[in-house]
Write a structure and sequence with these properties.
Elements: H1 2-8, E1 14-20, E2 23-28, H2 39-50, H3 53-57, H4 67-75, H5 84-91
Antiparallel strand pairs: 1-2
Helix pairs in contact: 1-2
Length: 94
């Protein structure tokens, strides 16, 4: 979670990015200028994933966080199947 949120979504060298359940992905690009069109979408995904970082590393009982709150936050991360055509369009694999 932390690698996706902080190292990839906030990096200028990663373009298209997404998540499906517990799997996150991001496309590395050597030229940061090619990543600019993806900045808004990456920041939106960052806002959803960054709130989960403490829950991934801390014991919920020990730190007083409720399982229900974690589930609420987790539900905001995309869980639907990835549309192959949309993914190809994003990463420019054609």
């Amino acid at each position: 979670m932390r690698v996706l949120a902080e190292d990839m979504l906030l990096s200028k060298n990663f373009g298209a990015a997404g998540a499906c359940g517990s799997i996150g992905w991001a496309q590395f690009r050597t030229d940061p200028e090619n990543c600019a069109p993806f900045t808004k979408a990456k920041l939106q995904l960052y806002k959803r994933t960054a709130r989960l970082i403490p829950h991934a590393y801390l014991d919920p009982v020990e730190h007083g966080t409720s399982g229900a709150y974690y589930k609420l936050l987790r539900s905001r991360v995309p869980h639907s199947e990835i549309d192959p055509a949309d993914w190809v369009r994003q990463v420019g694999a054609v």
